[in-house]
Amino acid sequence: LRTNFLLDFFASFIKIIDMAVHVALRVAMLFLFGVGVSLLINLMQAQKNQVLITSEMWLGMVKSGMWVPPACGLSAVAIGLLYPTVDRLLGDPTVAQRTDWSSVIRCAALFVGLNQAAAKIDFMSHAQLSLCLAAMSLGLWFYFDGSRSGLGLALVIALLAAAVNQMMICLDAYRPSVDFVRVRAWLPCIFFSGSVTVGLAGRLLAAQANSATSSSAAKSHGD
């Protein structure tokens, strides 16, 4: 009996360690994804009026908004963990089942394209910019996600993030590289499409982690 207890305890301990490792890997990948996309978007916005990015210009961007990339990384971690959690609570794992890394990469590429369009294309009015980006963002959600839970989460995150960003600008804690009115026009759509993109990555990472954990548990049970 004591031997069986020790074996069960050891198996449970290994399972907990395995789950902790998978969660740590998911957190690290989501954080790096958020930081990388943030730096890429900053570069694209800086290139709107100047094609060549010098080392002095890069250092200036980093110093003026040093907190932005880590904040984007932490936001990506929170969103990437929230999406699969909500799917599990609602019993809707279908999005993760039909998602692969090629879909995540294509969604991320389109998300970066939306940011580039918002930064570089001169629309006739801010309303036209908002409507155009809103249509493209909804198309991004419909093509890659299509779930009601994903739509609701993206809308809530976009509204909250836009409100926080506007508060930071009003408090002079963050200065965007474009005018304030233009930022208010396109930022909610960018947050919406960004939430969809990070949510896809988070769902896929969670599905792969669950699959690996189940395989390890089945192997241990078989042994």
Automatic annotation (TrEMBL):
<feature type="transmembrane region" description="Helical">
    <location>
        <begin position="186"/>
        <end position="206"/>
    </location>
</feature>
<comment type="similarity">
    <text>Belongs to the INSIG family.</text>
</comment>
<keyword id="KW-0443">Lipid metabolism</keyword>
<feature type="transmembrane region" description="Helical">
    <location>
        <begin position="64"/>
        <end position="83"/>
    </location>
</feature>
<keyword id="KW-0812">Transmembrane</keyword>
<dbReference type="InterPro" id="IPR025929">
    <property type="entry name" value="INSIG_fam"/>
</dbReference>
<protein>
    <recommendedName>
        <fullName>Insulin-induced gene 1 protein</fullName>
    </recommendedName>
</protein>
<keyword id="KW-1133">Transmembrane helix</keyword>
<dbReference type="GO" id="GO:0032937">
    <property type="term" value="C:SREBP-SCAP-Insig complex"/>
</dbReference>
<keyword id="KW-0472">Membrane</keyword>
<feature type="transmembrane region" description="Helical">
    <location>
        <begin position="126"/>
        <end position="144"/>
    </location>
</feature>
<keyword id="KW-0256">Endoplasmic reticulum</keyword>
<keyword id="KW-1207">Sterol metabolism</keyword>
<dbReference type="GO" id="GO:0032869">
    <property type="term" value="P:cellular response to insulin stimulus"/>
</dbReference>
<feature type="transmembrane region" description="Helical">
    <location>
        <begin position="150"/>
        <end position="174"/>
    </location>
</feature>
<dbReference type="Pfam" id="PF07281">
    <property type="entry name" value="INSIG"/>
</dbReference>
<feature type="transmembrane region" description="Helical">
    <location>
        <begin position="20"/>
        <end position="43"/>
    </location>
</feature>
<dbReference type="GO" id="GO:0006695">
    <property type="term" value="P:cholesterol biosynthetic process"/>
</dbReference>
<keyword id="KW-0153">Cholesterol metabolism</keyword>
<dbReference type="GO" id="GO:0036316">
    <property type="term" value="P:SREBP-SCAP complex retention in endoplasmic reticulum"/>
</dbReference>
<keyword id="KW-0753">Steroid metabolism</keyword>
<dbReference type="GO" id="GO:0032933">
    <property type="term" value="P:SREBP signaling pathway"/>
</dbReference>
